[in-house]
Every structure is written in C-alpha cells, then in structure tokens.
Amino acid sequence: MRHKTDAGAKALSEREAREFMRRTGWLSRTPEEFSSRLLQNCKLLSFPADQLVYDIDDPPGGVYGLAAGRVGVWIAPQERGPYLGHLMRPGQWFGVVSGAMRQSRAIGLRTVRPSQILLLPMVNLDALVNKDTKAWRYFTGLAEMNSSIAMAAVDDLLIRNPARRCAAVLLRLAGLRNPVDKTPAVGDVDVTQEELAHLSNLSRSSVGTALRSFQRSGLVDLSYQGIFIRDATSLKAFVAEDDSG
Predict the structure, then answer these.
(1) Which of 31, 84, 121, 134 fits as disulfide partner to 62, beta carbons 3.0 to 4.6 Å?
(2) DSSP states along 114-145
(3) In angstroms, what CA-CA distances link 162 with 18, 155, 238, 241?
C-alpha cells in the first residue's frame, strides 16, 4: 500500500475534530444530547502513516471515530489473510461490537496516511449506556451501518463483468457506492493496482486494462500516489449497466 504524508495538511484541534464528527455520518443522525455526551468522553489520538490502531484478535477495547486521514481495514475471517478489505474515511466509526460485546477484535486497522482518531474508551462507553438506555439503540445503528459496508463488498464481488467489478470496488472505497453510509466521499483512493486486483478478485492485468480504459474515458487519473476518480457519475452509470459477464 502506498502511504501518503498529506504534506501541508493542518492538524485538527480537539474541538474541530469533535465538531466535524458531530455533523458527519452516523453521529449526525443521533440526538444532539447523545452526540454531545459521547464526544465529551472521547480523547483525540494522532497516528503516523502505516501505524497499527488495533490488530485482529486484540482484546476488547473502545470505539474509534476517524476525524482526519485514512485507515485500512484488514480481515482474516477464514483460512487466509490478513489482507486489505476496505478503506475507512473521515466521519466513520468502528469497534463498537468488540467494545459492547467484550469480544476480541474481528478486524485490524492500520493507517494509510497520517490520521487523527477520536477514542471513546470502553469504560466511558459503559458509563454512557448505563446513564442512557437509549444509547444502545444508537450504537446498534452504527453496527448496522458498518454491516452494510460489508454487504456492499460482497455485492461488488458478485458482479461478473471484470471492468464493472473493478469500478464498483473503486466507488465503494471512495464512499460513492453505499447508500446507507453518508460520510463524505473522497476522490482519491489509496490503493495500488495490485491491492485493487486483490480487492476485486481479479488479476492485476485485468485491473490494469480496466483502469487504462477508465483513464482514456476521463473517468479516473492514475499516478504513483494512487487512483483519483474524476467522473464518479459516469463511473456509477457504467457499473449500473447490464452485467453480461
């Protein structure tokens, strides 16, 4: 994976990080009283690029919210892995099932670029739900939202046409394909062509052919830094065409 430095990017203050998360994604759908109480119990952490946040099978911990940067999700649910399964974008939260159910971490998280992450420690999670019994309803909504991302990934891999499958995965990684997840989309996708091939269950040559076709059509830009989606509307229209294999 290519790790970006985000040179010149200004770090968020704790107040700015909390305000961004309050009005973005899952937390923006919850009552203000709940979101305010949750954010007051969070602390802001900073990570360099390529830094482990937590690993598969780590003990239960708190809930994390990505305020800035990018985080890769690593999975190993069966015999193989770990391997990259998805990219988290600013505004997304993760880790609620492990913290709530006292289960070991099912996924691993590693930063792709310098990142700022809000952490709700497990002890604060417990205090929050003990004080407000409705809090579980809101956390269940977060778990359902994250489950929808996993279902979207499965749906992408069922697309028979290789180029359309590649485009669908690109759109999902950029936040442009899941209708439930309303966190801000990004234009740049921090994956190599080899990683995109693995994520799409395609050969590297098939992905290279598809990407060059997208580039000629003005849909994407390709560079050493990664892949930039220029025309998401046309790329989504391409994915929506009849999947004839």
Answers:
(1) 121
(2) EEEEEEE-HHHHHHHHHH-TTHHHHHHHHHHH
(3) 41, 13, 12, 13
Domain boundary among the residues 119, 149, 179 is at 149
Whole-angstrom distance between the N-terminal and C-terminal Cα of the chain? 29
The residue count of the chain comes to 245
pLDDT digits (tens, 9 = 90+) for 229-239: 999 999 999 99
- Say if residue 164 is in the same domain as residue 213: yes
Question: Which residues of the chain are modeled with pLDDT < 50?
Answer: 7
Task: Say what the pTM is.
Answer: 0.88
- One domain, residues 19 and 136: yes
Q: Which residues make beta-bridge pairs with 74?
A: 84, 108
SS3 229: strand
How far CA 219 is from CA of 36, 60, 185, 194, 211, in Å, comes to 40, 42, 16, 20, 9
Check whether residue 174 and residue 58 sit in a common domain.
no
Q: What is the span of the domain harbouring residue 190? A: 158-240
Note whether 137 and 47 are same-domain residues: yes
